[in-house]
Amino acid sequence: MTNPTPPTKLRMAVLGLGRMGLRHAANVAYRTPRAELVAGADAYVPSLEKAKGELPPGVYLTTSYQEVLAMPNVDAVLIATETASHAKLTIEAVKAGKHVLLEKPISIDVDAARPVVEVVKQHPEVDVMVGFFDESYQYAANKAHSGELGKPYLVKSASNDTYDPTGFFVQYAKHSGGIWIDAGIHDIDGARWLLDVANPKNLRNPKKQVSYVYASGAIIRHPGLAEHGDVDSAQAIINFENGTSSNIHASRTSTHGHDIFCEVFGTETKLYINPIPSINKVQIRDQWGVRNETTSSFLDRFKDAFVNEVNEFVGAVLDGKPMPVTVEDAFQASQIAVALTWSQRHNKPVLFDDDGEPILSE
Ligand SMILES: NC(=O)c1ccc[n+]([C@@H]2O[C@H](COP(=O)([O-])OP(=O)(O)OC[C@H]3O[C@@H](n4cnc5c(N)ncnc54)[C@H](O)[C@@H]3O)[C@@H](O)[C@H]2O)c1
């Protein structure tokens, strides 16, 4: 009897080894059976030192992402640098022939994102995926798309980040693109998916998915954000052309932990994803009453989602399957995030034109 041929492994590198990148690198190294972590790059030497202590000894670490892109033994890169560099690095990686798993969002502005969509179209031999949702969102989307809720018509969601008094977050905000591009993007992505807004069957003009958006915001606890034109509590309304809508609250002020939840309203049924943000199933009964402890950050809440997304990406590349989340999806979500940012800063609604572009004018 002959031994079956072992499955080929995807040889991966991670660019950016900060909060998110180091978690991704460890997931590729230890929790992705069909991938191998070959290299990592970070421009900041202390990030590399930390990575050295947490990653397998054979992983090549460098300050130069260009060096990694030139390595012939790297098949794919996971890009987790700060958002402002995503578009540039993705374009260079695709041109170097590497498959790309890109951390959300695609860019901090639409003009920088456009060439990414173009370069991906020009290189069909390269696979590119942007982010992925966790199991509960997948489960809810399956129900919404199967007709089990009747007609889904509204997604009401909130991304409440834990209040950070250390000052890290204000510094981070400098390159993040603002609350809609950095945090609200998850809610926008979720609403687009759950409400099936890109389905041409429900659109008069397939190019136009959004009718108009409106956002407002305020600085509640991080005065330093004013310097970056950002806010730490904001609300949005998005009206889609298929007759559905989304209502979002994004904040950085939660004192009880990372609290991210989502309600999906259908004509027959409502779904509620993560109504109580418990860290586990343990209930505590003490002098303060009956309670659960909370997920402290996105790293707790989405720890399995981050593993799933790498496994999905690796499986799709190795098996030649379509990418579950495309650059086009990410581009559409970014357009909405940019329109919400403009709306919040100008205190005006933003209409979308017949080409599906937000009309950003005074
Ligand atoms: N999916 C999620 O839930 C989620 C959560 C947090 C952050 N993110 C995304 O992950 C990305 C990184 O966020 P983070 O919180 O890890 O930030 P971070 O600041 O902790 O890490 C970014 C790292 O990239 C490095 N870097 C920047 N430019 C580089 C370059 N040209 N070459 C090599 N290294 C470079 C920096 O030195 C830093 O170590 C952001 O785009 C953010 O939007 C996603």
In short:
With 362 residues, the protein is of the alpha/beta class. The protein contains eleven helices and 15 strands.
C-alpha termini separation: 74 Å
Mean pLDDT: 95
Number of domains: 2
Which descriptor suits the 3D outline? globular
Please identify, by name, the CATH architecture of the largest domain. Answer: 2-Layer Sandwich
User: Which small-molecule ligands are present, each listed once?
Assistant: nicotinamide-adenine-dinucleotide
Sheet having the most strands: 7 strands, mixed
CATH homologous superfamily grouping of the largest domain = Dihydrodipicolinate Reductase, domain 2
Low-pLDDT segments, ≥5 res: none
Secondary-structure element order, N to C: EHEHEHEHEHEHEHHEEEEEEEHHHE
Q: Gyration radius, to the nearest Å?
A: 21 Å
InterPro entries: Gfo/Idh/MocA-like_OxRdtase_C (IPR004104), Gfo/Idh/MocA-like_OxRdtase_N (IPR000683), NAD(P)-bd_dom_sf (IPR036291)
Keywords: Oxidoreductase
Protein name: Gfo/Idh/MocA-like oxidoreductase N-terminal domain-containing protein
GO molecular function: nucleotide binding; oxidoreductase activity
Structure in words:
This is Gfo/Idh/MocA-like oxidoreductase N-terminal domain-containing protein. It holds the Pfam family GFO_IDH_MocA_C. Residues 146-350 form the Gfo/Idh/MocA-like oxidoreductase C-terminal domain. GO terms for molecular function: nucleotide binding; oxidoreductase activity. Residues 10-132 form the Gfo/Idh/MocA-like oxidoreductase N-terminal domain. By secondary structure, the chain is α/β, with parallel strands linked by helices. The chain folds into 2 domains: 10-130, NAD(P)-binding Rossmann-like Domain (Rossmann fold, 3-Layer(aba) Sandwich); 135-302 and 327-351, Dihydrodipicolinate Reductase, domain 2 (2-Layer Sandwich). It contains 11 helices and 15 strands. The strands form 3 sheets. A 7-stranded mixed sheet has the order 12-11-7-10-9-8-15. It has a 6-stranded parallel sheet with strand order 3-2-1-4-5-6, with helices on both faces. Strands 13-14 form a two-stranded antiparallel ribbon. A hairpin with a 2-residue loop joins strand 13 and strand 14 (289-291). Helix 1 (19-31) crosses helix 10 (303-319), helix 4 packs parallel to helix 5 and helix 8 (179-194) packs across helix 11. The longest helix has 20 residues, at 327-346. It is globular. It starts with 9 loop residues before the first strand and ends in an 11-residue tail after the last strand. The model has no long low-confidence stretch (mean pLDDT 95). Residues 15-21, 41-44, 47, 65, 80-83, 85, 103-104, 131, 172, 182, 298, 302 line the site of nicotinamide-adenine-dinucleotide (NAD).
